[in-house]
Amino acid sequence: MAVHADNRGMDAQRFLGLSRACIAEVEDWLEGFDPDELDYTMTDGVVTLEFADGTRFVLNRQSGNHQMWFAAGVSAWHYDFDEASERWLDARDGHALQDRLAAAVGEKLGRDVVWSNTGA
Fold it and tell me: Is 81:10 a contact under the CB 8 Å cutoff?
């Protein structure tokens, strides 16, 4: 059961704008990393993070569900946009996408990583 309202009724243009803004924010954050430890590519709403050992994480928009999806290793999360907080929140437990992204990247790199608009 979702911990907040889902986005299925959201206008497609609004979703596209919100998902583009989310991806742009993630790209800005990723720019703060040394590309030798973490590099990324962005193609058509899909951000692929690639680590030095070849491991990949993927963030992408799911237009049909109006969600953002993040996959890291064998785990995956689905995020709905929460109007009240203006954040993408996990559909199951309500954690923020940015928090999960920072935690997953930090775990992979073996160091503390925090979310900020200025990168790692």
Answer: yes
Q: Which domains does the chain have, with CATH numbers?
A: 12-108 (3.30.920.10)
Cβ neighbours of 53 (radius 10 Å): 7
In DSSP notation, 27-70 reads: HHHHTTS-TTTEEEEEETTEEEEEETTS-EEEEEEETTTTEEEE
Indicate the pTM of the whole model: 0.89
How far, in Å, CA of 61 to CA of 52, rounded?
25
Q: What is the pLDDT of residue 8?
A: 64
In sequence order, what are the residues at sequence separation of 6 or more whose Cβ sits closer than 8 angstroms to the Cβ of residue 79?
A: 67, 68, 69, 70, 88, 89, 90, 91, 97
